[in-house]
Amino acid sequence: MKKYFFFLTLAWVTFSGAEEPSRTWTSKHGLTVQGSYQSMEDGTVTIKKPSGDLFKTKLDSLCTADIDYVKARSFSTPATTPLPTPATPKAAPKTVKMTLLLDPNPNDPSLRELGVSPRAKMNDTLELNVTMPNRQDKEVMPDSVWLIESLTSVSGTLKATTETLPPLTTEGLFYFLSYNVENKGLGGSIVPAPILQDTRNRRYYPLSPVEKSIGSYIPAGMSSAEMEMLRPEFKRQFCSVYEVPKDAVISRIEIFPLRVTRHPLYASWTRSGQLSGKAVDVNSDVPPQAATSSTLTPTKVEPVAEKPKVFMSCKQKASKGTGVTHGIQTRVLAYTIDLRLTKPQQKEMTIKAFFIATDPEGDGIVDVVDQQASLQQGKSFSTTVESKPVREVSTRNENTVFTKLKGVIIQLWADGEIVDTWVSNSQWDKQAKLPDLELKMRKARINNYIDQELQDRDRDRRPIRRF
User: 118: buried, middle or exposed (CB in 10 Å: 19+, 13-18, 0-12)?
Assistant: First the structure.
């Protein structure tokens, strides 16, 4: 009997020490890599490539045949096998509806959300609606529906599906983003490619579908964004490829409404950072509040629907400005905001500051500043919001006020609702409580009036030409 166990142990040691044969590994999306199996730990498979480099990937990202292959070669003795732990409940996917304000001004393009929607995560359904500030009716138009499915990475070499194209190589990682888009507009549109953002706020743009022929490197059945027209009421699966440094940790995905691609400057806006999209969090495995240890004591668990309570105090800082030259000066307004959360234990909130100016047509929004606030119970949070530099004209012919930066409306948002407001001028109390303030309040056109003022002055200085 002892001899039997000796030979059995010897056979196991011989097998475990042998070099695994090289084989072709295939992901769920059809991507392949050549190498031999090395190990699996905490759901991560290590593969040794022919070059000697080690390649790691998640077990559940492989095809079924490869998963079975790994499981057949993963050994562990009962003494070292950890006890199974109950799976952490994940937040169920939700539908996030939002309305975006798109201003396609070539000099100052902007894309902002009207109000604040709940934070979106991968596998959530995002319904995008769009309104244009230059439209007289300010109608809210359905745009598109997005679903971010997966984000996977491949290191080293990326082979094409055709033999005529050479493989792509990188010192970092190739990221594959898979997503579904449905066109809800009235006309056909090109799908804008999403942008990746890492924890260091670096942005990564997809490889050019034209220069790199990305359509030949993505899995079969998927389309390449920014290439094909998506017709109304049609839905299609897309894939974008990104080259990212190895030290990057992708935290967010920025998506854009289809309507932005109708402007020829869209690509330059996004790559220069002038146009930021709607952010989708990559890390969607954060457990919901009900899944924490406090579930053992139900009396201490706060209702999910309960609104947070927070004290907000705002104060204007000294305004900054340049000297007055020919009745024109540039000025900046800044306000400090102090917050103190009383419940729940912690809360992610959004501060929206609407800076108000007056021109010959009346009061209007001249700038909007958004800031995120991570609050903890009992701890003070302080920040400063500051307007962009605004030109003012103090006098014009009859010594009347022409344009002026007047003050601010501040809204505090959580879970897609307004929690508290503050105004520097009581006449804006009613506007402060509007969730769609940017849609209901006009946009101040100070620059237009000042440019006209300068043209008028220049014309008045011109000598009279005699014929």
Answer: middle
Q: Are 111 and 101 in contact (CB under 8 A)?
A: yes
Contacts of residue 92, defined as CB under 8 A and 6 or more positions apart, other chains included, come to: none
What digits encode the pLDDT tens for the residues 59-96? 888 888 888 788 776 543 333 334 444 554 556 788 99
* Site of tokens 């854009």: 256
Exposure pattern of 25-61 as b/e (b: 16+ CB <10 Å)? bebbbebebebebeebeeeebebbbeeeeebebeeeb
* pTM attached to this predicted model: 0.63
What pairs with residue 153 in β-bridges? 175
Convert the pLDDT of each residue in 416-460 to its tens digit. 889 999 999 989 999 999 988 888 888 877 765 555 555 555 555
Could you give the CA distance from residue 122 to residue 124 in angstroms, rounded to a whole number? Answer: 5
- Domains of the chain, with CATH numbers? 2-72 (2.30.30.700), 95-281 (2.60.40.1240), 305-455 (2.60.40.10)
